[in-house]
Amino acid sequence: MKTFLKVLVGLLIFGLSISVAQTPEPVYGGSVNIAITAEPPGWDPTVSTSQEIARVMYHNVYEGLVRFKENGEIVPALAESWEVSDDALSWTFKIREGIKFHDGSDLTLEDIVAKFNRAKDPDSGHVHTKYFTAIETIEAGEGNTVTFTLNKPSSSLLFNLARPDSIIYPAALQESQASTPIGTGPFMFDEYIEGSEVRLIKNPDYYMAGVPYLDAVNFKIMPDPDTRFAALQSGDINLIGTSLPPEQFLQLDSLAGLKGTSGSATTEITVGMNESRAPFNNKLVRQAITYAIDKEAIVNGAMFGLGTVIGSHMSPSEPYYIDLSQQYSYNPEKARELLAEAGYPDGFTIKFELPEPYNIERRSGQVVAQQLAEVGITVDLSVVDWGTWINRIYLGHDYDMTIIGHSEPKDIGVYGNPDYYFQYNNPAVTALLDAVELELVPENQTAIYQAVAKILANDAVNVWLFSPPYLVAVSDNLYGFWQNQPTPSIDATEIYQVQ
User: Fold this and answer.
1) How many whole angstroms separate alpha carbon 408 and alpha carbon 313?
2) Does 434 share its domain with 353?
């Protein structure tokens, strides 16, 4: 059955790639409706780790100095070029002339300086100040330039400047971004209908010639996957760009008026264990849980074969990936032995909470619960709404075990933060993550990241189930959408619709 599914998927992807390659010339005008799974908990990606914000706002409304392209390449955005000193301690960015914010005000060098002074300030409320700790000063210079002076080399600086965390808005309007987002992107925030949709309209003053093509983009909040798919078939929405169930993707080839693509993504479906409480503070227990889970069965059963089993916090699309999927091959007998050795010969009871809007995580979690029961672990399974998951589990660390897809690229660095919701604290990992920032040779960076991945796997910090592909379902007259996900974003800049 597994071989058949792989062949079927290969044929589908081959056929779909041919149809997408035969694209017509772009046309202007019209609007599209795009389904998203969960309500964004705000609009500013610098104050929340929720990727639901970035999916709507990144490079649609907000931009940074540089950005990711669909293939993962980092290219100019608000900065048209940059230079790096020989010692890698000075980075000078040439800023484009004449860029305006959506409120009509000019983008100034002072806006950029203020943004990154805030970003590196641990008391500012910026959620990822760790990305900017190497920045000593930011100064405006002649020729419309901004220079970052570093206190130490930072191999991730350019990557971090491409993240949603590095978007820029008017310095004087920081507080108002929560209700009225103002960026420089190809679309402007128009209206939010609570719990229903986010409406964006074309920016007539966008600095990039020729785009966007659309007059408007509406992001429809649709948690239920069957409702989303029915709306796509009826024409009420035009694109599903997140959390598409694999069985729906496999139907697309037989449905008139629809098409689909399968591309790369940076997502790891992760069973998180709270190491601040028993029994998860016991490494033997975490290893037992990992041995008890048949990841291949989950990929085949819950994902119809669409996914790659992984063994650490890395996705195969990332350049430093190392395959550790066989370190804990499915072995329920070994799991029982480790539980007995850890002092739990009769097992124990845990709470396992699944995030309500995410169908893939929920179905995977249900299989995990069944498999744990087979080795004597009683699972109290429940589904929690997204707001509760963010506030109580992610921010409050009040949980036993949970599951979520970690979609942010190059996010293995979270394991250097002992206050992250896993509550994992290993000084050796922190030291390696600090060292990789000082390493400017790519091959050496890869070696360090892979060393970190091996430690995480050995410590069985979490159970990393699989990395899913990026599946898109779309009306067959829609073009220019991202077919890969180098960062969570449904970038509408180049989307157009042919009538």
Assistant:
1) 11
2) yes
Residues 14 and 25 in one domain: yes
Burial (CB count <10 Å: 0-12, 13-18, 19+), residue 345? exposed
Domain count, the chain: 3
pLDDT digits (tens, 9 = 90+) for 97-119: 999 999 999 999 999 999 999 99
pTM for the full predicted model? 0.90
3-class DSSP state of 150: strand
The number of beta carbons lying within 10 Å of the beta carbon of residue 158 is: 14
pLDDT at 259: 98
Please give the full DSSP string across 202-235, using - where no structure is assigned.
E-TT-SSTT----SEEEEEE---HHHHHHHHHHT
Q: Which two tokens stand for residue 442?
A: 């790519």
Residues 6+ apart with CB under 8 A from 109: 95, 140, 144, 145, 146
Q: How many CB atoms lie within 10 A of CB 17?
A: 13
Report the DSSP pairing between strands 348-355 and 377-384. Answer: parallel
Task: Quote the CA–CA distance of 230 and 70 in Å, as a whole number.
Answer: 28
Verify cis geometry, omega within 30 degrees of 0, for the bond prior to 409.
Answer: no
Listed in sequence order, the residues at least 6 apart from 421 whose beta carbon sits closer than 8 Å to its beta carbon are 272, 274, 393, 394, 395, 397, 399
Domain boundary pick from 146, 173, 200 = 173
- Asked whether residue 484 falls in the same domain as residue 448, the answer is no
Query: 285: domain range?
Result: 268-467
Give Cα 85 distance to the centre of its chain: 31
pLDDT at 23: 86
Provide the pLDDT for residue 6.
39
Could you tell me how far CA 109 lies from the centroid of its own chain? 29
3-state SS record for 478-499:
EECCCCCECCCCCCCCCCEECC
Per-residue pLDDT, 240: 98
Q: Cβ neighbours of residue 156 under 8 Å, at least 6 residues apart?
A: 131, 410, 436, 437
Cα–chain center distance at 418: 21
In this prediction, the residues of the chain whose per-residue pLDDT falls under 70 are: 1-21
Angstrom distance (rounded) from CA 196 to CA 443:
46
In a domain, 493, yes or no: yes
Please state the three-class secondary structure of 419-469 as a single string.
Answer: CCCCCCCCHHHHHHHHHHHHCCCHHHHHHHHHHHHHHHHHHCCCEEEEECC
Residue 51 located in a structural domain: no
What distance in Å separates the CA atoms of residue 380 and residue 131, rounded to the nearest whole number? 37
pLDDT attached to residue 49 = 86
| Residue 316 exposed, middle or buried by CB count within 10 Å (0-12, 13-18, 19+) | middle
